Every structure is written in C-alpha cells, then in structure tokens.
Amino acid sequence: MTESQPTAIVFDGVSKSFGSKQVLQEVSFSVMQGETVCLLGRSGTGKSVTLKLLIGLLRPDIGKVLIGQDNISSLEGDDLSRLRRKMGFLFQSAALFDSATLEENLALPLRRLTDKSKSEIEHAVLRALAEVGLAADRYKMPGELSGGMKKRAGLARALVLEPEILLVDEPSSGLDRITASEIDDLLLEQKAKRRTTIVIVTHDVHGARRVGDRFAVLDKARLVAFDTLQCLENHESKTVRTLVGGQ
Predict the structure, then answer these.
(1) Domain for residue 110, yes or no?
(2) Per-residue model confidence as pLDDT tens digits over 170-218
(3) Domain for residue 241, yes or no?
(4) In a domain, 239, yes or no
C-alpha cells in the first residue's frame, strides 16, 4: 500500500469509554482503498468497538471517524443511511433471520435500500450466493445450514449491495481450520475482484496472516502498532510479536 492511494477510512484521535472503563484512547490510523487491515488484540481491547464506530452504531467521545470524506460520527437519518449503504457487515454469528430462507435474507436489504426491480433483486441475490458457493441452497432456512454455510451466507448478505467497505467480525469463530480457510479464500477473492476495502477483527493469526495487508494491534485501549506483517514480526513489543505470530 502506498500513501498516494485514496484513503477509505480515517480514525482521528478517537477515544471511547463506557462509564469508568476506557475502551479506546486517542486511536489514530488510516486505511487505504482496496486494503485489508486486520485488528488484533486480546479480548476486551476495543476491537469490536472499533467496528461499531466505523459503521456508526457507536459514536466516539472524542475524535472523528471518517468514511471517505464523511464524518460518520456526525451524521444522522438519511445521511447516515446513505453512508452505511457503502458498507457491508459480516457479524460473528452471521445474524441471519431464522424465519426467512437464504434468498429472502439476502433480498431484504435490496428491497429496503434500493429501487431495484424484482428480477434485478433476484439476479443480485443469486450472484451473491453463487460467489460463496450457496446458489443451490437459496431456499434453505438458516436452521438447515452448518456453521460454515451460515458464515458464507452472512458474507453473501454483506456483499449483496456490492459495498465499497466490508467490516468483518471474527470470520473464523466457531469454524474448523479448513472451513475458516475457505472463508479467508472468499475474502481474498472479494478483494481481488472488486478492490473492496476490508477491516477484519480476528483472533485467528493464521487467517490474518493470509489476508491482511497491514495489522493494527490494540492493547490497553491504545493502538500500539500499525504496520505490515514483516515490520511487526520484529517489533520491540513482545505483545505485538506474539499477536502477529512472530514469536
């Protein structure tokens, strides 16, 4: 990644607390368009809070969160909805509606957020399901799917609006190594085909090393490192070296 590339995301001096607990303190970093950044850190270090700030589910106490040129922290109503349409979110649990088929789960955001016709929606849903290998399962209910299939279905729903930015929370959670690698492959394909900007929260160092361009390491509410794998493997901090698998 080069500094000449357009910037997709900027965290500018962001702090966030819940009561007396400081979760993020003066965190600053930038993500370039088409880059994949993996957020690493021990549990409770603010990784998932960072994702929620990115999509506007939370607002910083101090600082700004920029998506392109827009400060998402200051947007409301239609302006916030418009910006969120540029982003897809893959939840840790996949977050599918149990009472709807896969096809209906994917069609819902298209019906709510676009003016596509019925045939255009059907085409977009089938395309997204095909991209994750679930086209033949379009009429299945979430309860009929394995854990890996649910994760792929959640990814398809996150991609159905063709987002510029994809936010991913623990993509390998609850999956065996082979299935987790399949999810990693899908993320790599998405990046290669559409130059999607991807931010991933993960404890899976193996997967992060496969898909990440740069790595943000959070510890005790602060960003303690943000760089490429090669640089972080030789970082002065033992915590950083351990989290990226360099030690």
Answers:
(1) no
(2) 888 888 888 888 889 989 988 888 899 999 999 888 889 999 999 999 9
(3) yes
(4) yes
Question: Which residue in 182, 133, 190 sits closest to 166, CA to CA?
Answer: 190
Model confidence pLDDT, tens digit, residues 114-173: 889 999 999 999 999 998 899 999 999 999 998 889 988 999 999 898 999 999 998 888
Q: Which residue is listed with tokens 């309860």?
A: 143
Reported as a pLDDT band with limits 50, 70 and 90, residue 4 is low
| Number of domains the chain is built from | 1
Domain residues for 197?
A: 1-86+190-247
Residue keyed to tokens 């509410």: 221
